Amino acid sequence: MITSSILVMFGLGLACAVVLSVASKLLAVEEDPRVEAVLDALPGANCGGCGFAGCESYAAAAVRDPDVPADRCCAGGPDVAAKIAELTGKAAGSAEPMVAFRRCAKSEGNVAKRYDYQGVPSCAAAKLLGSPDACSYSCIGLGDCMRACPFDAMYMAHGMVHVITEKCTACGTCVSTCPNHVMQIVPQAARVMVLCSSLDKGKAVSEVCEVGCISCMKCVKECPAKCIALEGGKIHIDHTACLAYGSSCQEVCAEKCPRGILRCLGAAAAARVQEAEAAA
Fold it and tell me: Which fold has domain 98-279?
């Protein structure tokens, strides 16, 4: 009986092996060799800045989906875009260099502390108790975005995050990590920036920050390019329209801001100024 059982089990195993072998041949999906080639061309950061789960997902989409462009890898830049374009037969595109920017000037605005946070050193954790700063929309400064940055392009100083523009790839990880939505991705060539993320207006802002945007709308009314708007409670700038207008920004919107929070200072330049201030 033992011998028969062994033979039966052996026969079943052999039969299953044959079935699996045949199925693997009949149901096999041929892999496009270009997917592997595109994956090899990518930096392997898996940062998600392309909008896909990782480099492998983007490589497959870039090869198989005609609507997925070759220049979605922000970490790789133009060189990687050119390689992917060559492998997929798509246009390399001319994506404008972008960079992360911090929309907050709480140090300059002398924003006071609401309470002394002693919990887990995390912006998200502190946010659960209400922002520790008097301004509920300021950079909390506990480093969630810095720790999440896959390119070590951020550091903390004087209670705020600072961006190292030379390392930043504009992957957007910091934007999705910040609980106060202080970080944003802007063109490196942007020349007018808003250093405030508050959704409050007028007196409520003035009471907690000396330079915060009070949503007075003067910049919106005075902008000759009509590229400034109040959206979702915050001032937003259409940087493409702003750059295309071509006028000196000191002569228009930035001069009209009564709080001086609308700055005629490009994102990269502003980050360098913030870095210098932090070092000082």
Answer: Alpha-Beta Plaits (3.30.70)
CA distances to 132, 142, 255 from 161, in Å = 16, 8, 27
Q: Is 138 left (phi over 0), alpha (psi -120 to 50) or beta?
A: beta
Distance CA 116, CA 132 (A): 7
Q: Which CATH architecture has domain 33-88?
A: Orthogonal Bundle (1.10)
Query: What's the rounded Cα separation, in Å, for the pair 220 and 153?
Result: 33
Q: Quick one: CA dihedral 162, 167, 169, 174, positive or negative?
A: negative
How do residues 169-186 score in pLDDT, each as one tens digit?
899 999 999 999 999 999
Could you tell me where in the chain the CATH 3.30.70.20 domains are found?
Answer: 98-279
User: Quick one: pLDDT band at residue 27, thresholds 50, 70, 90?
Assistant: low
> Does pTM surpass 0.85?
no
CA neighbor of 274 nearest in space, from 84, 100, 82:
100
